[in-house]
Amino acid sequence: MFETLFSPITIHHLTLKNRIAYPSLGLLYSWDRKLNDRYLHYFTEIARGGAGIVTVGPVGVDFLGSGLAVLGLDHDKPIADFKRVTDAIRAEGASPWIQLFHAGAYSHPILINGETPLGPSAVYSKYTKATPKEMTSEEIRTVQSAFADAAGRAVEAGFDGVEIIGSAGYLLTQFLSPKTNKRTDEYGGSFENRLRFPTEVIAACRKTVGKAFPLSIRMAGNDFVPEGNTDEITPLIARAYEKSGVNLINVTGGWHESKVPQLPMDLPRAGYAYLAAAIRKAVTVPVMASNRISTPMDAERLLNDGYCDMVNLGRVLIADPFWPAKAKAGRVDEIRPCVACSQGCTDEIFSGNPVSCIGNPRAGYEAERIIKPTASPQKIMVAGAGPAGLEAAVTAAQMGHAVHLFETRDAIGGQIELAAAPPHKEELLEYIRYYRAMLTRHGVTVSLSTPVTLDLIRAEQPDHIFVAEGAAPAVPPIDGADIEGILSSWDVLKKDRPLGHRVALIGGGAVGLETALHIAVKGTLSPEMFHFLSIHDTEPPEKLRERLFSGNHEVTVFEMAPRAGGDLGRSTRWVMMNHIKRYGVHLVTGARVTGLSAKKVTGLSSKKVTWHDGNEKWSQEFDTIILATGSQSVTALSDRLPELGIPFTRIGDGLTPGKFNHAIHGGFLAALQLDAPGAP
Ligand SMILES: Cc1cc2nc3c(=O)[nH]c(=O)nc-3n(C[C@H](O)[C@H](O)[C@H](O)COP(=O)(O)O)c2cc1C
After folding, report:
1. What lines the ligand 1 site, CB under 6 Å?
2. Structural domain harbouring 450
């Protein structure tokens, strides 16, 4: 199975056992630039899972280019720490690589003790909201030497290969791009001049590491920023890199400030593999593809269809480090999915927190959260097959407890189905695939269409009950909110009720906006029809583009807060807000809805409103009104459980409504508690 994926590949003089690489990913497991035990355990687990390459990185070549939150190898002292990690990775059968990092103008002043970052030119960075200092010739030489010195230390630390970061808008890219490089010396102006800095960095590293050592560069196949390098130019850049001495090219897409998403579910699976394919045509060294390569089937197809020679699996391996081992064993359905939500990884580091994963409670906690075989198996009953119940059931079964899972509905998944309904969210259904496979693998007995009652519990006589009753839509304290005809977002997402032309959504949090989008796309051109009409030249491209966004409904969202989508993560909020705009959803913020009737919304605005009649008090007619005003825990069963005297734990939304991580991590941790010292 997956023969190409698991076939060896030789990079320069190094033979790898398979074509899977875990790329560099900022983890924020330390704030002192040191490679501590948390990193060690994390990388060991990734290596144990079967990847061919495990890249430790980003690793700063100097302080100014990386700062407090990035690992550092800018002097000899940390070599021993890195050696410990390369030994651990190698002991697990993987090849340890390192990514050498310099952010240039993308260094946040706050992370470099308030100093001014360096860049090719003093061009304001939208990403850091700072203007870098233009590098002098001497500073250019110093940074190049820093790369070369760090590469030498990497060899000493036992790495098999060095990757230089030349992507995402960092220093090398800043030199390459006419947008950020306005220099008039030999490092700016012409294409050859802009190439000089990165190619000199490669040459300097080559000199230090020697002829036989594998060197790689990570580059964007398209910067996706105005004035940046597009895929017309990047193959030429790749060719120059090859000439300068790299043995592998790792192709991703975009800069941090790009308006084209690189990480969310919106990006189709393996979406940027076409960029790798274009580079591969231009060079003779192996090429890696990156971004949203989700399944072994995707990976094998990319390799077989000539897109790339290796695949990068980033978040996918955070979600399940054992993706390679499971793929190799043909246990694909048991791979814990990465749904590309970025909530546990990107959103967390953007908030200054360590990387975790909403779907994998062990990510980042490898040494603490261990599933150990139980010494005293118990009979466990789980009420509710939503994410919390499923995770608790599977974890308890893995520990060796006898688990019986009950669900009122005729299917597992709880709110997963609901969350997967809006556009670009269908990836969430992968959780259902995963849990279904894990329930079978770990021998959990499942009874569907079986509500848990006190009588059932008395008959079962479990030792412990996990109660995962979930939540129900909350009815807000608004006059008329409970009248017949007013729908909830759940009704719409789950049941796709008939909707009138003018639709009002009350509540502009994540669920409200997702529901609005779900409705706004109805009647727009499907991707298949867009493709069909395009290839047959039925209409001018502008007309077709217009049809992509003009649906059957006119949607208005009322949000009380001054800002909608406040509960969306930083990495996805901007994508959502752009969708809201392009699909023509009217967003009314700072608007408190005070009354509802079947066809009318009445409210107050904190300031005079321009969207209506200029008054603070307003009312507007609609054909359909939908509430997206949160949910509340269902506790019907758990409220009555104390009378039975059987130990129980409330988990998931039944404890408090929350996001997936709350449900999944909560279910996992609750199951581990079964064997905790002093547990009932
Ligand atoms: C939290 C986070 C940190 C990242 N840090 C880096 C980095 O330091 N260097 C780098 O080249 N790419 C970095 N990336 C990009 C990843 O290496 C990878 O290209 C990206 O996540 C897309 O691949 P995936 O869909 O397989 O995750 C980061 C991504 C995430 C989510």
Report:
1. 23-26, 57-58, 99, 165, 167, 218, 252, 263, 290-293, 312-316, 345-346, 349, 355
2. 379-472+633-675
Does one domain contain both 119 and 53? yes
Cα(120) to centroid(ligand 1), Å: 24
pTM of the model: 0.95
CA nearest neighbour of 583 among 680, 513, 504, 489 = 513
Is cis: bond before 562, omega within 30 of 0?
no
Can you tell me the distance from the alpha carbon of 383 to that of 460, in angstroms, rounded to the nearest whole number?
A: 12
Q: Which atom of ligand 1 is nearest to the CA of 571?
A: 31
Determine the pLDDT at residue 676.
83
User: Which residue, judged by its Cα, is nearest atom 23 of ligand 1?
Assistant: 291
Q: Are residues 188 and 67 in the same domain?
A: yes
What separation in Å is there between the alpha carbon of 421 and the centre of ligand 1?
Answer: 27
Specify whether 572 is located in the same domain as 666: no
How far is residue 326's CA from residue 169's CA, in Å, rounded to a whole number?
35
Secondary structure of residue 470 in the 3-state scheme: coil
Nearest to 405 by CA among 387, 388, 389, 422: 389
The reply to whether 448 and 501 lie within a common domain is no
- Say how many Å lie between the CA of residue 277 and the centre of ligand 1: 20
Phi, psi (5° rounding) for residue 636?
-55, -45
CB-hemisphere CA count at 13 Å for 655? 22
Residue 1 inside a domain? The answer is: no
Asked whether residue 344 is assigned to any structural domain, the reply reads: no
Using most ligand atoms within 8 A of CB, pick from 22, 25, 320, 351 the residue to mutate for ligand 1: 25
Atom 7 of ligand 1 has which residue's CA nearest to it? 25
CATH number of the domain bearing residue 419: 3.40.50.720
In a domain, 392, yes or no: yes
Mean pLDDT by 10 residues, the chain (680 residues): 97 97 98 97 98 98 96 97 98 98 96 96 93 97 98 98 97 97 97 98 97 97 95 97 97 94 93 98 98 97 98 98 98 97 94 96 97 96 98 98 98 94 94 98 98 96 97 93 93 88 96 97 95 95 94 96 93 94 94 93 82 79 96 95 95 93 96 82
